[in-house]
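Our collaborator T.R. sent over the components below with a one-line note: 'Predict the complex.' Nothing else. No constraints on interfaces, no templates requested, no preferences about which chain binds where. So this is a plain run: every listed entity goes in together, and whatever single assembly comes back becomes the starting point for the next discussion.
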Amino acid sequence: MTELRFNPPLSADDPRISEWLDDRLPEAEAVEIARLVAASPELTRMVADLRRQKAALAALPASPPPARFVADVLAALDAAGDMADDDAEVEGEWRRIERERLEEEIAEARDDAAEPVDEPMRHRWPWLALAGALAAGVLAAVVINRPGGMADREVALVAPQQGERSETKRAAAEARQGDTDADQDTWLPERAAAGDAAAADRNAAADKVTGLAAAAPAASAAAQAQGAGVGGGGGGKEPRVRTVSYRIRTAADRQRLESLLAASGRMTMDRANRKLLEKSEGVESLRREAATDGVAKALEAPEAARRRGGPGGPPSERIALTGPADVMARLAAALEAAPATEAEAGDDANQAKYGLPAKPAAPPAAEAPTEITLVIVVVDESGAAVEAEEGRP
Amino acid sequence: VAAAVAGDRQAFAALVERHQARILAFLERLTGCREQARDLAQETFVSAYRKLATFQQRSAFSTWLHRIACNHAASAGRRRRPVVSLDAPPAVGHQAIVPVANIPDASARLEREELARHVAAALQRLDGRYREVVVLSDMQGASYEEIATTLDIPLGTVRSRLHRARLELRRLLTPADRGNP
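Returned assembly:
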């Protein structure tokens, strides 16, 4: 995996600064970071603050354990008896919340369906990608374009038409062929991008929303993913492709997306797909990590992305993630449910509904607004090879 | 651990004895409330006992425990309204927060305590996801890999999330008139 490193100037957002503070960087890289920090008064001041902050955190006192804590735990074990498993309860609660949110999102998507669909995909400078393995395709597309708030957001969740499937398969095959043709360290994003752009266009034209009906409840979707994924073709069940476009204009947008992706990854590992991952043992898990890791890196490097964008316009970033159907559904739902940078009424309502404390205001953008369109292609695991490539200018 | 898995209650009690301080401290830092932390720690150990048979020793027992504790803390955060504890640090207005860089050398001890209060208060204002990684890394001393295992997130996400968390904490500790870099 090629990484974009040592592209001065060093951004304050660059996580290598924390890695450097934590002595995690190789010596050569640490020296380079130290040089770049020393060259910038702002970074020098920031690093000094972070050091003090870290020391203060480490020095915070902790309360001593209660004297009878161990005895209390043992008593609780006795009292608990054959009660239902706590973690099962927690998981059940999570599923309920997710299901409710999904249903709300489907309803909202249907409402939004009357609006025209904007396709903001740009793929002049795709730099990060995973070429997904696609065996056959049912296509669902979500286009989210929310530069400023709910009023600007347009969403389309489109059920694939029968005739589209073959085209999707072709696009998938082309993308896969692109991988095959390419060097191990080379991804051909334009080819896959073309496939997805065409898919998104078809979705827009279809203008029919069945939404996340394809995003079935976790259990059935997981079962479907299981069949389609690990089974390598799934006995006639077709994997799904979902394209999500998400416009990022501020650091807060980027931060939100990163957290959503991370959350979807956690769902993958924690719930219905655990067995899927265990069956595929290691390799798929690593691929998934590579993909999400790539997302994080992409999001960490707005400066680099802007540079690649050049003066001709904002750059776009293209990210492909693999994931079974239910994970894709959750990701799509989560993207839709993402709170806007500014507080939204619906967000507060959801917080109240789920008994959560009001969300703090999103941090202000740490940089001038940019307009990076980030395209995420989520494909089902179908057993074919997936390679990740981090950005090439 | 093996003895506890085999059903030895005393062995499990020894595990609780060994790990209680860290788990309690972890949960207290996550929740900002000693009483809630104690309840959650108890739930954590009860869950751990029930799930001992599923512990496959792919990670350290401590990491596994932290993960269970994280799940309980997250679940509690979704079930309950915030609890204001009498022993929680007093709420501090944003303007009153003293920047870490402005702490003078004189009266070092008092000011360290003052800083500790401010940091503790700011920590509670952090987004929960950020608080998790900061507490695990800077207070519990967990490695990035251990954090990734505990939170079940990719290593790259740990890197980015931890750095953002630290920057956000710094912002919270920086008065508005000083501004952000």
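Summary for T.R.: The first strand of chain A starts at residue 129 and ends at 131.
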